[in-house]
Amino acid sequence: KEGCGEGECGACTVLMDGEPVLSCLVPLLQCHDRNIQTVEGIAADPEARRFLERFVQEGGTQCGACTPGLIVAGWKLARGRSRVRRREIQTALAWNLCRCTGYLPIIEAVERASECMRTMADQAHSHTGEGPGGETEDSDDAGFQGRREPATARR
């Protein structure tokens, strides 16, 4: 989904080879032989589907213009993690503008969607006897490419 066409809003965020990029800033030729995953592709994954549904239930959406980018960025952060810290969410979503919610509902929606996934993963691991995995060290680097500065720097 294109929002601004200038890399300012984050609505067009997709995963390219597993990393979030602003699709409006990526020339088409750079996409050749790359794995591109849109919000629709992410929603096809059953685990991501649960994340998406919880994000919506928790009030992370309003008008929907920014939602695709927020889902992609939030899912990239939460996928395979047993714990996501609020500061990490804020950093990962800093590239996405929302003019409706004031950000706190979005941050809380990602937080709760991630917690929901962790609870399901813990339940699955308790049935297999394995410990939960996927937790990574804290990082303020959201791994975002194709961007000059975080949108929060202008707010």
Please characterize this protein's 3D structure.
Helix 3 runs parallel beside helix 5. A hairpin with a 2-residue loop joins strand 1 and strand 2. 39% of the residues lie in helices and 6% in strands. It is built from 5 helices and 3 strands, in the order E-E-E-H-H-H-H-H. The chain is globular, with a radius of gyration of 15 Å. Strands 2-1-3 form a 3-stranded antiparallel β-sheet. The chain is mainly α and 155 residues long.
Short recap of the structure:
By secondary structure, the protein is mainly alpha-helical. It contains five helices and three strands, in the order βββααααα. Helix 2 crosses helix 5.
Largest sheet: 3 strands, antiparallel
Mean pLDDT score: 80
The level of helicity is 25-40%
Specify the structural class: mainly alpha
Oligomerization category of the chains in this entry: single chain
Please tell me how large the radius of gyration is.
15 Å
The count of strands amounts to: 3
Low-confidence stretches: 131-155
Strand arrangement across the biggest beta sheet: 2-1-3
- How large is the count of helical segments? 5
Bulk shape: globular
Strand content: 5-15%
Distance N terminus to C terminus? 23 Å
SSE sequence, one letter per element: EEEHHHHH
Features:
mainly alpha; disordered C terminus; single chain; 155 residues
Break the fold down into its secondary structure elements and pairings.
Layout: E1 13-16, E2 19-22, E3 36-37, H1 39-43, H2 46-57, H3 67-78, H4 86-92, H5 104-128
Antiparallel strand pairs: 1-2, 1-3
